[in-house]
## 1
Amino acid sequence: MKTVANLSDYKSTTRGTGSPSSIILAVGGGKGGVGKSFLSTNIGIFLANMGFNTIIVDCDLGAPNVHTCLGEAPPKLNFHQFLSGRLENFEAAAVATQFAKLRFIAGGNDHQELANITIHDQSRLMSAIYTLNADFTILDLSAGTHTSTLDFFLMADRHLITLTPDPTSIENAYRFMKAAFFRRIKRFERQLGLEALVASIMAEPEKNEIRVPADLLSRILKENPEAGRELEKFMHHLRFELVINQTRSTKDVQLANSVSTVSKKYFGLPAGVLGHLDYDNAVWHALRKRRPLILEFPNSPLYAQILAIARDLASPHLKKAVI
């Protein structure tokens, strides 16, 4: 990522003039229970403490719990009021927290139909997220590879993948990245006139030597170099940034580099390691008390680890911040 002097400069290099000012961070992962909400909320707290106006959007439409991780009561305002027309402005659903400069928008606990959001309502939500007035908008995503989850993930400027060292989490993280890869291609294939070509290639993957997702891009480049190069540019805006959670050993920490190397080879896309979070019973105790970790256990090693991740995310904009 190109380092720039301030947030407005960064905005102009990524979305063009006149675009919303918010930098969107998406926190995803293929498996539930890997710490997506924990990471989202604590990054949000640190960014707010740095002086950035931050909004966390709970995009886990089926089982939202951002409010719990923040130590807040379930708010009366949520997605449902906006989608039902009772709130014209999505930002009106943003609720203040005990942290200055940090707000959050909740999912609807009592409205299970939100878990099966329509394409129309999803489009409305995505448009509304783009227009939020904040320095950073953090999307806390649901588990799995539902198309709405992937679309929220792909709309972000930075794409965080949270996983734990256990085999099921690693497997599901790869599955999530693979689904995001193909969803990204799907988004642009019609625009570039590649629908028929992609369909014909994927109809006979063995004949076309499609062993890993990266082979599809190579094949498209071979068959249609001009459109293939354009697609390649679009695809390289998707950069996975890994956070390994609940690490207990050096081997667990090093796993992030292994996953990064494999994902680069597998997808042919940039992949990096954003950081790791050690296993700490303090997380469980803080959640039981409905208190954010940094308030309940400020001496936990996780404090410094999360701060390092937040600083990395904020690094292009630290001139704006007060550390």
## 2
Amino acid sequence: MIKILSADIGGTNSRFAYFRYDENKKLGLIETIWLKSGEAVSFADLISKLKKSDFSLALEEAGMAVFAVAGPVEQGCYSAPPYIPWDIDISNANKDFGLRRCTLINDFVAQAYACRSPMIESAQDVVPGKIDPNAPLIVTGAGTALGISALVPLINGGYIAIPSEGGHASFPFESEPEFKYMKFLLKELGTTYITANTVVSGKGLSLLHQFFTGEKLEPAEVTKCLNEESEVLINMARFYGRICRNFALQFLAMGGVYISGGVAAKLPELVTHKEFAKEFHRSEAMARMLTKIPVFLNRNEESGLWGAALAGVRAAEFPQKPLKG
């Protein structure tokens, strides 16, 4: 049996879980705990808060630890997340934290592996289609920012998750009304170009509401103001559909599109609205193919913990290089 410490460290919340992987190759969740990322002054401080909590797994007892983080990962041991005010370095994890074996992965790599966990069974059908089990799938979703990863089948029957920082790419505005919104964002944010992170994140929801109403509200407050005919909801659903369509085309994701992240989890109307499916299918050349790709909504905000744990199982059973720590 292997005791696994799994973590999903985001800009808002840091989630931790204790898993056991038994001799029958069954992964079982024992417990989870959520901490506020912003209440820690460093990664070491976050780990200290975990140790002082009532979390039952002592770090020294973990046979494997996997930290999923909202940012690019270097050499499996370092990340400087763009939306967290401190970096993460596990290159000396044994000395610093008492961890025997550990690795660092992107948070949406964890979300991609979660698509092979029990958590995905409860995902809601959003756009109909038919899964091709031999084709790539993608998982994307917005919270503090926008994440994206692809899960690609291997010839031997396995699969591998591909990291991406596609949320930092420029957002494709396409019409005169959208260009007006783009100009508003450029002026409001004082930046030189607008990324997908800006447009479809929680912050983006607040900015879109401000553009149409002049009010500056937090995302949770905006959510309470929306209905089926709201210009904010219509446009946000269209933007989300466009992002998902573009990612689906880039990876030829006939294995399906899975949407996760706090924004859609708290406001599922973003992806169930008719404008989402209309925009997802809109393509002069690829509409027929796009109609075959199913889209699912995963509202379980702990699915990344399962994905990180599965990544830990893979690393423990099939290590390709020495793990850090």
## 3
Amino acid sequence: MEKRSLGNSDILITPIILGTWQAGKRMWVGIEDLDIIQAIRATVDEGITTIDTAEQYGDGYSEQMIAKAVKDKRESLVYATKVFANHLKYNQVVEACERSLKNLQTDYIDLYQIHWPSGSFNTEIVPIEETMKALNHLKEQGKIRAIGVSNFSLTQLEEAAQYGRIDSLQPPYSLFWRYIETEAMPYCVDHQISILAYSPLAQGLLTGKFQPGHQFDPEDNRSQNKLFQGETFEIAHEAIKQLSPIAQRYECTLAQLTLAWLIAQPQTQAIVGARNAQQARDNAKAAAIKLSAEDLQTIDRIGQSVSKPFEGDRVMWDW
């Protein structure tokens, strides 16, 4: 699989990245450890070398699952994890990093990210200068190789960049959720900041397997996803019908088609979750699909029928 530079660092990442929120189990249902371990191993076998996680995913459980699955292949992999919004004071960042190193059974983290801006979810406000000072110190020590931010607005990204090099931004981004395109993407392109798109399949909506009226378990975070609500869900279903013939022409699934569209966007890689080995193998195939310029434009137009009402909205969930 092709490799791309992470920001302006010497770290090489794959255009498809394995996401492991589900491995932490919290806010997901029907997740089995053995399936997750097999999914992680299958992902690596398919040539995907970049794995994204966070301390918040099951209080480190996701990180531990990664170690169980592929610790013997650590040197050939790129680990990206995150410190949560309640751990952004200097000492808290350092302590959180140490916990993640232990969970991942490694002595360095390739990409360490601020998961949510200070103050999110009613957390204490911590000056970004203090947080960045801790991250820069960890980088100098060799415990982390690059710094990234997640769920930051353009203003927050610009402020963080005043205190150190930011090599990645991790926003929600898919064919159906495209706030990033008009907000921070131009800045990322100009400053060589990689965009690591999470929820690139709109939490499964772009697979086409959910019909209008589908009800999620209340414990499933998708029960609060704005894209699965009312009229939006119905409009999305119509858009999926229009995308299906294009996927058939490329002899791929809807998921693979929309992932191929996403990783063709400027500076963009896709973080994709997998519940089992087959999903992991299917996701990896998207990297080999090369869409024509005409089809990229057509897919773009179809997606806007869903994304347009949310173009000023950064958060997909009604939390």
